[in-house]
Amino acid sequence: xxxxxxxxxxxxxxxxxxxxxxxxxALADMLGVSTQTIRRDLDRLCDGKNLLxxxxxxxxxxxxxxxxxxxxxxxxxxxxxxxxxxxxxxxPNGATLFISIGSTALSVARALRGRKExxxxxxNLSAAMALSEEVxxxxxxxxxxxxxPDRDIIGEDVIEFFGRFRAEYAIFGAAGVAGDGGxxxxxxxxxxxxxxxxxxxxxxxxxxxxxxxxxLAPALGGNIADVDxxxxxxxxxxxxxxxxxxxxxxxxxxxxxx
Length: 258
Hints:
GO terms for molecular function: DNA binding; DNA-binding transcription factor activity. This protein is α/β, with parallel strands linked by helices. The chain is 38% helix and 21% strand.
């Protein structure tokens, strides 16, 4: 099988694992191929045990489905907690900050619960709820449709929303990091939203665990070299040494200080 086809099918499985289910049309748009190509891929991938076809969608089988976002939020808890504490330590009371979607960004929001008088601009509903417990905070959300089960909002309206604000800090994650440092996401709209909040923040902070280095995702955004601060749990695998060495003191490994 051609390597391009193998990579595309691996990406389809990865997206379904992340989201629990996705439509044929969304996959075709995400991967830049026809719906017929996606349907041929699904003929091979849907085995009736792990992945199922249902009404123009591919979904995880019922016994594999357990709120994918909560699964991600529950993985590598020690690493994410360490990342979150380091990132949160850079945010003072009274700061204005963007918080992106994703489970690691949510961990940072939870680590910020002791801060007061924050202005939080986010499309991550779980992060907003975590910070809503402090009544001195101001929380600003975009309009639009809530994406479930991730509990976030994406789309062109969100990109325009982030464009209306300026912040001191931008807290964001990534689905993967390519060998050249490219930051990868599953959908172009997620890329554009992250690009906008980074552009409109004085300091950008990428929060990411080492498993994201080399992880595939189809949509390319910025580059890790352009981020002001990267907070990771532990050093990534050896092929990424050059990337981390080039960042010098702009990358922090949260678990090394414990």
